[in-house]
Design goal:
It contains 12 helices and 18 strands. The protein has about 350 residues and is an alpha+beta fold.
Length: about 350
């Protein structure tokens, strides 16, 4: 048996290793939620035709990595640790991030679909980022604009819920109406929205379409000397959208600015998911190996590289973080990626 790690949880996978580093799973058992039928592999009403699935099948079983790719997933296998991690990939069965559709998610009793009919500002943050100090200010924006049909929904990228909870409690302490706050310990929402650093904000309109894609926004000027961001401008833009429906970008601009994940980013997320699980299991050396693989695939993904520092014994506010900043600056990779703000 192998351990399968997905954004939705951890379970056992009946599979056996192959000499080339792969895995073979039984043909007569479900795999990734898909079941083999006479006409192909099906999940609900969606089916992968048998002639396509044949590319992943052998008389001995189904190739786990090949099958994952066929159904829009990415698999990273560690035979030595008897574990395999999955992340969203590309292709027609992957769903994908598009301007016309904001991916739904349900976490900690909150769902994006449950907010349909309202404008939603999804605010990605983490306790390992200075943006943690902005959470009370985001709560103030929620209090101000909630009566006008806008909800601030905060998503913590912390890998341990206890790291995020005190900051959420502080933000909620003096709130008129506490904003919905979730903790994305498995990277599910960050993966859906291709979040590569925090703070990142995504606006979703009343019909579930992305009105403003991944944007670096702050709610205070506490770290303006480091990030160069003007919180007053982003706050005014949010008010304009809530009150007048002007998101500052038309549909074509939204499509152009939307950052869709690359195959390398998807594979990096699978390595990161495996690294996080291994670190929690106390397998530090193996975790570091997968973190290094993720960094090599997506060196710009600060959400992975900094976000996993607490689990690997590094200080996300210390020397490791400043070394990461210096590396990215030398490579010309921006830490912050703000979108144009309408004056």
């Amino acid at each position: 048996m192998f351990t399968a790690i997905e954004a939705t949880g951890v379970r056992e996978l009946d599979a056996r290793p192959t000499p080339d580093g792969g895995l073979l799973a039984p043909l007569d058992r479900p795999l990734l939620g898909w079941t083999r039928e006479p006409h192909g592999w099906c999940r609900g009403e969606t089916c992968l035709p048998a002639f396509r699935a044949a590319a992943a099948e052998t008389p001995q079983g189904v190739d786990v990595a090949a099958f994952a790719e066929l159904v829009g997933r990415v698999a990273v296998i560690d035979q030595a640790e008897r574990a395999v991690a999955f992340a969203d990939g590309t292709g027609p069965l992957a769903g994908g991030l598009t301007a016309g559709h904001a991916p739904d998610f349900a976490l900690d009793g909150v769902s994006l679909a449950g907010l349909r009919g309202r404008k939603v500002a999804i605010v990605f943050w983490a306790s390992w980022c200075g943006c943690r100090y902005d959470l009370p200010a985001w709560q103030e924006r929620h209090d101000e604009l909630e009566p006008h049909g806008l909800t601030v929904l905060s998503v913590s990228l912390d890998r341990t819920a206890d790291d995020a909870r005190p900051w959420i409690a502080e933000a909620h302490a003096a709130a008129r109406a506490p904003h919905p706050a979730v903790i994305d310990t498995e990277g599910l929402v960050a993966e859906l929205y291709n979040v590569i650093n925090v703070p990142t904000v995504v606006w979703v309109d009343e019909e579930g379409r992305i009105a403003r894609p991944q944007d670096t926004q702050t709610a205070t000027d506490l770290f303006r000397s480091m990030n160069g961001l003007d919180s007053a401008k982003s706050g005014e833009a949010l008010r304009r959208w809530a009150l007048d429906g002007d998101a500052g970008l038309d549909a074509e601009q939204v499509r152009r600015h939307l950052r869709v994940p690359t195959p390398e980013e998807s594979r990096a997320r699978a390595h990161a998911r495996l690294a996080a699980w291994l670190a929690r299991e106390g397998r530090a050396e193996a975790a570091r190996r997968h973190l290094e693989a993720a960094a090599a695939l997506a060196p710009h993904d600060v959400a992975i590289r900094r976000g996993l520092m607490p689990l690997t014994g590094e200080d996300p506010f210390g020397d490791a973080y400043f070394a990461l900043r210096e590396e990215l600056e030398r490579s010309g990779i921006p830490l912050y990626r703000p979108l144009p703000v309408k004056e």
